[in-house]
Specification:
Layout (H helix, E strand, L loop, with lengths): L6 H11 L18 E7 L5 E5 L6 E6 L9 E4 L7 H11 L5 E2 L5 E5 L9 E15 L2 E10 L16 H13 L10 E8 H17 L1
Parallel strand pairs: 5-8, 6-8
Antiparallel strand pairs: 1-4, 1-7, 2-3, 4-6, 7-8, 7-9
Helix pairs in contact: 2-4
Amino acid sequence: MEAEFSTKEIDTVVKAQSKAHPWHGITPGDAAPQMLTAFIEIVPSDTVKYEIDKQTGYLKIDRPQKYSNIIPSLYGFIPQTYCGEGIANLASEKTGRSIPEGDGDPLDICVLTESTITHGDILLQARPIGGFRLIDKGEADDKIIAVLKGDAMYDAFNDLSELPESVVDRLQHYFLTYKNLPDQPTVMELATIYGREEAYEVILMAMEDYKKL
């Protein structure tokens, strides 16, 4: 005899087995912006660039890493954030320039850790200490710099200004060159580098942009 299930029972099973969308189905955490839940897409050992598929929430291959650029930290985004009008206005205010729009993606985050994490598609707890305000073809494209909660080495740092200069230089070099093609003009521009308090401001604005979206 075949088992019969109600619509409610089937719906409960489907929901229990469904994966939450990393952008929409997970929150930044109750302690945001001081402590964040971050979704990691890429790790330093990756030879291809992964990014979230906005429709399905699954990780997809964006492109192979054709050149020698290797991401120097864990890299992903902060759930339920969006770089829209508010982020563009904030970038315009901080730089004194007219920046018409954000890049239309969730807010990016780099997470520093001494641990070897071998793959992305994971969640972790990260504490922001600063950020880079990048301009990508006229669009505001902030990168929040954070440390992994409880990390044996990086958890001691509370602000970007405290990091070793070599660590900041490595991150800066990556973001200024990772989109460059041979014999082509530089695509990315680093407008400002900021500390923890301004990082909080950027995160809260991106959360507001998400709510408006």
